[in-house]
Design a protein that fits this description.
This protein has five helices and 17 strands. The chain has helices at 34-41, 80-92, 185-196, 234-246, 289-294; strands spanning 9-15, 18-24, 52-56, 64-69, 75-76, 102-105, 111-117, 123-131, 152-159, 162-170, 174-178, 206-214, 217-224, 228-230, 253-258, 261-267, 272-286. A hairpin with a 2-residue loop joins strand 15 and strand 16 (261-267). It is globular.
């Protein structure tokens, strides 16, 4: 175990290539505005990351609480990779004991992280991510004419010059899982931002392009709301698994293979979600006085 963070300090960690800076809101000493988040996350003139995880005061009944910021400065309700990274941070830096599950407050609802094993180069964690909802109101999502829609499951979504089959759902944050698109990075980068900013998603959405290998394995390419093309995503993996189960394409225990690696997801009979994956700390650093002044 290493010491808690002090003024202007951060820890940089990743889960399957999805990297975050973790800071302690009590001691960091820099208010995280949208503009400052963008500058800190910039990979050329800042520290560089896919986002920032800020430890904040936990409400009653929780062992920890986190706010999750995208690199464009917007705030995410939940992040599967982010939660694993944050839980490892709490366990490794004296903010929580790794001897018991850690209940974490997020804007997208409570999650619970448990340390499974700690090989020399990483931590493997199981995270309970809450329950999936297919209700459009929970994303939120509207019909093409702004009408109220109950569910959008395996329905056609008009995107530019294409009609794509989408299952839309919430795992605490919104997702549009595309079931019939070409499984191609160029296609994902072209249509991902169009779906993210589609008029039917008033708060935007995360996007996943899926290819089913077999009943227990699927592949996913991810366009993340507020971050763009990303190597992996924990909440996206949960969304992909839930959408494939709902469509009858897979069993309830699914391996989701992404460019950054593989996550194991279990979709319960009650549509509860659990994921198992690793988090790895990369570095511990200090925001320099020059960058602090530039912020």
């Amino acid at each position: 175990m290493t010491a808690m963070l002090t003024r202007h300090e951060f820890v940089r960690s990743h889960g399957l290539g999805n990297d975050y800076l973790v800071v302690d809101g009590d001691t960091f000493g820099i208010e995280l505005t949208e503009e400052r988040i963008r500058k800190i996350c910039d990979r050329h003139s800042g520290v560089g990351s896919d986002g920032i995880l800020e430890r904040v005061k936990a409400p009653a009944g929780f062992g920890a609480a986190v706010r999750i910021y995208n690199p464009d400065g917007s705030e995410a309700e939940k992040s599967g990779n982010g939660v694993r990274i944050f839980a490892k941070f709490c366990f490794d830096h004296g903010y929580a004991s790794d001897k018991a599950p850690l209940k974490i407050h997020t804007l997208g609802g409570p999650v619970e992280a448990r340390l499974l094993e700690r090989p020399s180069d990483r931590s493997v964690l199981r995270v309970s991510m809450g329950q999936v909802s297919f209700r459009c109101a929970d994303l939120p999502m509207t019909g093409p004419d702004k009408s109220v829609v109950d569910e959008w499951v395996a329905r056609k979504l008009k995107v530019g010059d294409r009609e794509l089959t989408a299952t839309c759902l919430s795992v605490g944050n919104p997702h549009a899982v595309i079931l019939d698109a070409p499984f191609d990075e160029e296609f994902a980068k072209k249509y991902g931002p169009q779906i993210e900013n589609h008029a039917q998603f008033p708060r935007r959405t995360n996007v996943q392009f899926v290819r089913v290998r077999d009943r227990n394995t699927v592949e996913a390419l991810i366009w993340e709301r507020g971050a763009g093309w990303t190597q992996s995503s924990g909440s996206s993996s949960c969304a992909v698994a839930a959408a494939c189960v709902r469509a009858g394409l897979t069993e309830r225990a699914v391996k989701v293979v992404m460019p950054g690696g593989t996550l194991e997801v279990v979709v319960g009979q009650d549509w509860s979600l659990e994921q198992v994956g690793f988090a790895q700390e990369i570095s511990r650093g200090l925001i320099s006085s020059d960058l602090v002044a530039a912020l």
